[in-house]
Amino acid sequence: MATLNQLERVTETIWELPRSFKAGMRVPARIYGTEKIIRAMDETVYDQISNVACLPGITQYAFCMPDGHFGYGFPIGGVAAMDVDNDGVISPGGIGFDINCGMRLIKTHLSYKEVKPHLKTLVDRLFKQIPAGVGSSGLLKVSRSEFRQVCQQGARWCVQQGLGWEEDLERTEEGGVIGGAEPAKISERAIDRGLNQLGTLGSGNHYLEIQVVHPENIYDPTLARFFGLDLPEQVVIMFHCGSRGFGHQVATDYLQRFLKVMTSKYGLEIRDRELACAPFHSPEGQDYFAAMKCALNMSFANRQVILHRVREVFAEVLGRSTEDLGMHMIYDVAHNTAKLEPHQVNGKQRTLLVHRKGATRAFGPGRSELPEIYRQVGQPVIIGGSMETGSYLLIGTPDGAQTFFSTAHGSGRTMSRRKARKQWQGEALLSQLEERGIYIRSVSKRGVAEEAGGAYKDIDEVVTATDLAGLSKPVVRFIPIGNIKG
DNA sequence: ATGTCC
Fold first, then answer.
1. Spatial distance from the CA of A133 to the C1' of B2 (Å)
2. Protein CA A388 to sugar C1' B5 (Å)
3. Where does the chain bind Mn(2+) 2 (predicted)?
């Protein structure tokens, strides 16, 4: 097992495991973090990220973001760009079981003062309208053929059904729908699991929060104004969820299929079964890519239905129209995905399959993939913190090129769920937080204990690390006042 | 993360 002194410090925030660290590494591995973060980091990350560095086609480095920690095969926080024209592979473990787990941020014209008297009603209504917890079913019922349309049309399907605004799509990564999704490549079992899951939150670290912008937490006033986050004590809504059991089943199906052919058919030797992969251009690789895109689209649709519920609840409780409430989306960004992107490598343009697992895309200004409204300033990045400590809106930078424009996605756990359950009591934590002005509704007290702020890294330190490294710049920090969770 | 083991 590696120790801190096996890392070579490249800069204040970049720590490298050279190829000599482990036999078979095709590229060095780079972990991002302040010294404090690196010292506290679980050393299993070194082992996992150096395994990733052994995968065929990996380009330049295997990266781990400052919020990185142990995951299935790849660490959470892992970034790996595979050159698909040079034997690059696609690996479900580099994307995550929760395909297109991501963040969505919505602003309002409301102040904390206006919301405070209605906070409990708002949270209670949201908790009812947006089902949370393992195995929860949504209020929206769709047929199997409609679900297949969702797989192909993503959030656009929702907007066509009246579940959102046209502008929501522009403010969603990929316009809320990624091309190339093929429902024929997903199992009936996956459809069974996904059918009733549109508009549901899930469990674990999935949540929806009402948050406030305090003036002292505006780090870039010009950009804050640009995003329309310059009203006094302004209220926003942020949520974190993914493709639920549907994406989980897609990942499970293809992990099994890859394991069958990986060695026998493609001769791929990997260091860990959890790194199961297939050549991107193989039939299996292409099938998974097309199936994964169904889950990407289902997840964009899931978050779109949730946004619609949020608007309905706010309009109902406050007795005002959503337009009047200014409930415009700022952005929706995935942090569990793999996407084909053009990147400069040693002065040449290459097509890379960028795996981001618990890592957020963070394009700098000018990228053609960005919607017109954001192309000049760069991509909004949403980093969600724990229910106690707050979350961030950041912006992508030109320096992000060093990680193929990737940054952190959250705080990152510092301890297991089991350990957190021993240290905190859900019931007691709920009352403590209510005294501090944070009202929480959860389906399980156990879940509350597991998500205690103390079980997570210091999000300010994570954001500082991305800022110092040049991966993303903080714009605004949000403080939670209400939270619903699984 | 996940119908937390078909």
1. 11
2. 34
3. 240, 335
